[in-house]
Amino acid sequence: MLMLKLAFRNILRNRRRTILTILSMFGGYVLMSVQLSVTEGSYDQMLEFYTKDTTGHVQITTPGFVERPTLYKSVPVSEDIMSALSEQPDVQAVTARIESSALAYGDTKSFPVEVKGVHPGREADLSYLADKVSEGDYLTGDPDSDGYYEAMIGAQAARQLNLGIGDELVLISQGADGSLANDLYRISAILGQPEDAEARWVVLPLAAAQAFYVMPGEAHRLIVLGRNHHQARTLETQLQNWVDNRWPESDYRATAWQDVAKDFYRTMQADKEGGQVTLYILVFLVCIGVLNTVLMSVMERTGEFGVLKAIGTSPSRLFWLIVLETLVLAFSACVIGVLAAWPINAWFTAVGIEMAEPMEISGIVFSHYKGQLSWYVFAYPAVVILLAAVIIALMPGLRAARIVPVDAMRTL
Amino acid sequence: MNPVIETRQASRHYGEGDTLVKALDEVSLQIQPGEFTAIVGPSGSGKSTLLQLVGGLDIPSEGSIHLSGKAISQMSGRELSDFRRDHIGFIFQAYNLIPVLTAAENCEYIMLLQGIAEKERRERVRAMLERVGLGGKENRRPNQLSGGQQQRVAVARAMVSQPDIILADEPTANLDSQTGADLLDMMHELNRKEGMTFVFSTHDPMIMERATRLVHLRDGRIEQEEHRA
């Protein structure tokens, strides 16, 4: 306690210098916290969008399908299965998808397309598919009076095939049983714009895709959406247990989005780490300033350290006194930093900064850089600043510890 | 009786070759428990150097220093600081109190290093400050005390941890004669009543008058010794 008191009183000796040092650490903390908040918030927004739009949080597939999708690797699907899955803890939405390819025919032209078989109601609840309709109406899932199922077609495919709403679309492919698959559909909607990811898609109701590819009661992926993408790993374990219990004889796999979209995930991580280099440069610059202050403070007190050592203070205790003093400065900076960064991060999270040019991905518009208000954006800069304080204190601390009392006291 | 301090052919040299300075040259000295010794001599005679060697603040270039039978000249930095903490009390000419600590905290500091329980520390500090005439001034910082009062705190700090010996380097040099005399009387009384061993480095006649033993140094060598009743 007396050592802490000594540390506090020492740093209060030169108040102006102490305030300037705390301010520089405080500035570093706030900048770091806000930048982290915006980075995390933006990535979070993007990942939440990506997982909802593309992969879901966890997928249930046959082994190897995620790495090498093929028409022949399917999992059973039924309303009963999807309802049971929906009832699992933390599961927000469930759907099933069939994914393959086909050759599409319009009036006089053909065009290769990616076919997606989706459950219209469940897909609309889980992903942004319904929001991507740029023209026409989203799938109803039922065949029309003539017995044709509806299909939604990507903008580029529609343009290539010269098709519009209400036109007939013919698909030709191979069924899972090896037969030649072909069928006729009525276009109910155009998806997105020609440059979007879904430009070459043809989306069919699940039942139509099952019939087309001869996959009765089957799909390629069961897509599950949990509370958020951060908890995907926990959900993955939980759903693997569910799968193992439900189909004990099978080897179906629950896979989190990080493994489903491995390359995307790695790229995001690398991008994020690259962004942190700026933060470390910032911390380094702050450290240089603080190191100067702490060194100056140690040099000014050389004689006093000589006395402390003469009366029996061990070198290690002197070293820790300097570390303690620097940590008190850093801790104070972090406390004030949290108070200042909190409202800024809260504002970024709630309102954000408007982008000069709104970004549109697959029909979804991102117009603001958003922040994130989480313990991470406050704790991480605090850990960095406190750790930096310890590193800063090493050199002055060792200097104080190595002081020879008789030489040091000559400076008094 | 075993000496509290023994220097055996202790020398302290600075520089080398033509610039070699022999601050202390083969000094052998024994200080017995309860002595009130003054090391005297002109400036540059080696008084402070001898006190620094005896106190483990410096290492002899040659020879050895033994305190309560232990050779302190062979100890590591850590062992030396522990040794100083547990066995030696220092009183410096410029008081050298820790400016950010109060009188009581300055005294308490060494006991904190010794790991003495807080309650005992507080009791010993209160009693010691009372004894040096600073009762009621426990919470004053050094800059709120006069020179004499600061030196009393330094005496209290040196004594409160109950060391084997107190080394005082010109303790009255910065005090007026009356304050210096009062302080010396107090230390003399502690020596007579409690048998505390004091070694002074000084050229203050008041200390010499009270000393039971005078060690005269000149050019780093013991020139003469006087024992008094």
UniProtKB/TrEMBL annotation, chain A:
The chain crosses the membrane at residues 20-38, 277-298, 318-342, 375-395. One of its GO terms (cellular component) is plasma membrane protein complex. GO terms for biological process: lipoprotein localization to outer membrane. It is a multi-pass membrane protein. It is found in: Cell membrane. InterPro entries: ABC3_permease_C, Lipoprotein-release_system, MacB_PCD. Keywords: Cell membrane, Membrane, Transmembrane, Transmembrane helix. Its main location: membrane. Residues 279-403 form the ABC3 transporter permease C-terminal domain. It holds the Pfam family FtsX. Residues 18-239 form the MacB-like periplasmic core domain. Belongs to the ABC-4 integral membrane protein family. LolC/E subfamily. PANTHER family: LIPOPROTEIN-RELEASING SYSTEM TRANSMEMBRANE PROTEIN LOLE. This is ABC transporter substrate-binding protein. The lineage of its organism: Bacteria, Pseudomonadati, Pseudomonadota, Gammaproteobacteria, Oceanospirillales.
From TrEMBL, chain B:
This is ABC transporter ATP-binding protein. SUPFAM superfamilies: P-loop containing nucleoside triphosphate hydrolases (SSF52540). It comes from Saccharospirillum salsuginis. Belongs to the ABC transporter superfamily. Macrolide exporter (TC 3.A.1.122) family. PROSITE patterns: ABC_TRANSPORTER_1 (PS00211), ABC_TRANSPORTER_2 (PS50893). Keywords: ATP-binding, Nucleotide-binding, Transport. The keyword Nucleus does not apply. One of its GO terms (molecular function) is ATP hydrolysis activity. InterPro entries: AAA+_ATPase, ABC_transporter-like_ATP-bd, ABC_transporter-like_CS, ABC_transpr_LolD-like, MacB-like_ATP-bd, P-loop_NTPase.
